[in-house]
Amino acid sequence: MSFGQLVIGPPGCGKTTYCNGMQHYLELIGRKVSVINLDPANDSLPYECAVDVRDLVSLEEVMQRFSLGPNGGLMYCMEYLEQNLDWLQEKLQPLQAGSHYLIFDCPGQVELFSMHTGMKTVVDSISNSWHIRLAAVQLVDAHLCSDAGKYLSALLLCLGTMLHLELPHINLLSKMDLLPQYGPLPFNLDFFTEVQDLSYLADHMESASEGFSKRFRGLTTDLCGVIEDFALVHFLPLAIEEKQSVERVVSEIDKATGYVFTGLSQSAPYPPEMLNQGGRSGSSAVSQATGDCKSSLAQTELPGGHGLKKDFRMINIIVPPEQVLDTVELFDFKRQRKLSLRFLAAYLLQSSIQSATHDSIEDARTALLLHQEYEKHVSTGTLRDKLLEIYRWGKQHGWDASSLVKKP
Ligand SMILES: Nc1nc2c(ncn2[C@@H]2O[C@H](COP(=O)(O)OP(=O)(O)OP(=O)(O)O)[C@@H](O)[C@H]2O)c(=O)[nH]1
Ligand SMILES: [Mg+2]
């Protein structure tokens, strides 16, 4: 069994630079790494390339020979690769036999990974037929966070790719070092990485754009609802030049592919380089945080909050739903969108929360008050009617309950 990463993302988001940085980092911590270039347009490679698809097919030649433009040419190249999978398999076999960790540098045309069947066949062969446990590592330029509309498009792209590729998936906000030059962000960085309470995005888009019509608001709100309902997309920030940042990313990818368990069949519980790291490494910091959280959960009678599933997933623990008071689930109407904390606070408590930033204490206090509301409706037998009323009202008003908030 081999392990690896499929590095994907829009043009120029930093995939090739990431492959180079990742190869250096992993070699430093003692892994044997091979980078495979799957981009037929990549003519100057900064990394040491073990397999180059350009030896099979090159974009320039295809464009000349068939009078195709760059995008049509690339589609042809990927279909040609699909027809010649045994070429790729032959090249990968010695690397797998040598237990190399494989990093695949991919082209930037996003449609290849969100709707193209040829590329999906290539990926399926690598991961299913040739037994290489892959994680898709999707890079998205962090500057997209400076514009709510572009950020929403990036979320949809990530979600679409995740559903199309069906691989363990890690989304990264790349080029974090350049972010300050785009000015202050409309929200904290946490808002963009955790992808919670997206109702703020619609508010922000409306206030930032004069021509933002009511129709667009409804569409934006529904799209945000779809992303929140799936609860699959979140991001890790990446600064490829910073060791700690790369370390954190590697730790997440290793958990996603199962690489962390490779030592289990031998005597060591973790891959050797993890055990050898001095100090508090990313992976040990994660287990420390997980341990801290587990012990506080053990002392808590019933942990409560809003949207806790995602919090638990972030720290990699599983808590049975019956041992949690989650206001997302309490106010849920089956097969309907999940309700945001902000909407529920405005509708049921007439209070406005998180008008400028995310405050976790304010969130916790609001979840507690909502739980009291829930108990009240359960005891009077009015919960179902209340939920019907909330969903009807929400749909009619574009899920914006700010008009109900009591003025201070
Ligand atoms: N400041 C900064 N620049 C970066 C970073 N990553 C990549 N770049 C620059 O962004 C440009 C594009 O980087 P590439 O690594 O070629 O991006 P790519 O995604 O492989 O591009 P395509 O293969 O054309 O889709 C290059 O000029 C890189 O030097 C980063 O983390 N910080
Ligand atoms: Mg590239």
From TrEMBL:
Residue ranges of domain Exonuclease in the record: 305-368
Entry keyword set: GTP-binding, Hydrolase, Nucleotide-binding
UniProt-recorded name of the protein: GPN-loop GTPase 2
Give a yes or no for keyword Heme in this entry. no
Q: Spell out the molecular function terms from Gene Ontology.
A: GTP binding; GTPase activity; nucleic acid binding
What InterPro entries does the database record attribute to this sequence?
A: Gpn (IPR004130), Gpn2 (IPR030231), P-loop_NTPase (IPR027417), Ribonucl_H (IPR013520), RNaseH-like_sf (IPR012337), RNaseH_sf (IPR036397)
Summarizing the function annotation, the protein's role is: Small GTPase required for proper localization of RNA polymerase II and III (RNAPII and RNAPIII). May act at an RNAP assembly step prior to nuclear import.
Keyword Ribosomal protein among UniProt keywords: no
Fill in the subunit field for this protein: Binds to RNA polymerase II (RNAPII).
Q: Which family does it belong to?
A: Belongs to the GPN-loop GTPase family.
GO (cellular component) term, any one: cytoplasm
